[in-house]
Amino acid sequence: MATLIDSHFLAFTALVTIFFGFYDPCHLPKNPGWPLRNFLALISVRWNLNSIQFFCYRENRGFADMKLSLVGEALITVPQGWKDTVPSAVGWELNKGRKASRCISLAQSMDPTRLAISAADLNLKLMRWRALPSLNLDALSSMKCLLLGAGTLGCQVARMLMAWGVRKITLVDNGRVAMSNPLRQSLYTLDNCLNGGEFKATAAVESLKRIFPAVDAEGIVMAIPMPGHPIQSQEHDSVLDDCKRLHDLIEAHDSVFLLTDTRESRWLPTLLCANTIKITITAALGFDSFLVMRHGAGPLSQDHKLETSPIHSMTLRSKRSYPSSHKESAVPIAALR
């Protein structure tokens, strides 16, 4: 079987018999497929042949099937007016005003990331339809959330934000994953504890991307300056740099979540959020209670004074004291609030 090369084709036809083969998608036992008509018309007009032997190559479930393949000879009659022109192809659809092949992208139905995005968006639309028609999904997906603290609350809040359609999440923490953390903090595993432990901020981001690849998450390893903590003279410059960096982070985000485990670590972020007029949410856990509180009047209010508005608080009590179990049972409730 030879290729149809223009410069050598006529000389080649004088020496050997031409045998034309093509892939035939048809599965009729005695009839060649429709593409053969187009090929015969082209061969007749382009190379002026009146007869040609052909081979219809066919497959069955991806493998060659010689029993189903056909071999034959075609006699070609050239209509008047075809001698100097190549006829239009038969069977092509119009694509942008001309007959050409049409390409269809199957990425949305095959790419795992796009499938995950589609499934998440559908779930949010169902939530809006059934429970909250006024929910603005576009506003949620474009919102930039800053999470100060990547511990028990930080992990749970990050997952809740993703579930509600937030796609831009930044986590700030300077701690490392300890052996006791994976049992209480949902974004870490035992592998994150080995070799001294990974930084929580970076490990949490990697976990978020494994859960939902479309999330735009960033982890920043940084200590939050706290009042009442002594600072060495050689640490002055680094502390000032941390303060400036924290200010820039708060200014670059739409909402801030204070999820650290001490009041001192929330003091400076609270002042910076009040200064930049940002919606700020504090979530705090006790041994048998939790507190969720919103700070600030918000960017749409004319009152820019720092305020605290308790959203929800709850106390869990029992005849016996189980501090650890009580604390962990309150985490999902506090994060959801």
Outline the structure in words.
InterPro entries: Atg7_N, Atg7_N_2, ThiF/MoeB/HesA, ThiF_NAD_FAD-bd, Ubiquitin-activating_enz. It comes from Vigna unguiculata (Cowpea). This is Autophagy-related protein 7. Pfam families: ATG7_N, ThiF. GO terms for molecular function: Atg12 activating enzyme activity; Atg8 activating enzyme activity. The protein has 337 residues and is α/β, with parallel strands linked by helices. It folds into two domains: 76 residues, Ubiquitin-like modifier-activating enzyme ATG7 C-terminal domain (Cytidine Deaminase, domain 2, 3-Layer(aba) Sandwich), CATH 3.40.140.100; 194 residues, Rossmann fold (3-Layer(aba) Sandwich), CATH 3.40.50.720. The chain is 35% helix and 20% strand. It contains ten helices and 14 strands. The protein has a seven-stranded mixed sheet, sandwiched between helices. A hairpin with a 2-residue loop joins strand 3 and strand 4. Helix 6 runs parallel beside helix 10 and helix 8 packs across helix 9. The chain is elongated and about 100 Å long.
Through-space gap between termini: 73 Å
The CATH homologous superfamily of the largest domain corresponds to: NAD(P)-binding Rossmann-like Domain
CATH architect. name of the largest domain: 3-Layer(aba) Sandwich
- Count of β-strands: 14
Q: SS-based structural class?
A: alpha/beta
Widest β-sheet, arrangement of strands? 10-9-8-11-12-13-14
Query: Which topology of the largest domain does CATH recognise?
Result: Rossmann fold
Number of domains in the coordinates?
A: 2
Main pleated sheet: 7 strands, mixed
- How many helical stretches? 10
Question: At the first level of CATH, what is the class of the largest domain?
Answer: Alpha Beta
Give the strand content. 15-25%
State the low-pLDDT regions, or none: 1-10, 306-327
Mean pLDDT: 80
Helical fraction: 25-40%
Anisotropy-based shape:
elongated
GO cellular component, one term: phagophore assembly site
Protein name: Autophagy-related protein 7
Pfam family, one: ATG7_N
Organism: Vigna unguiculata (Cowpea)
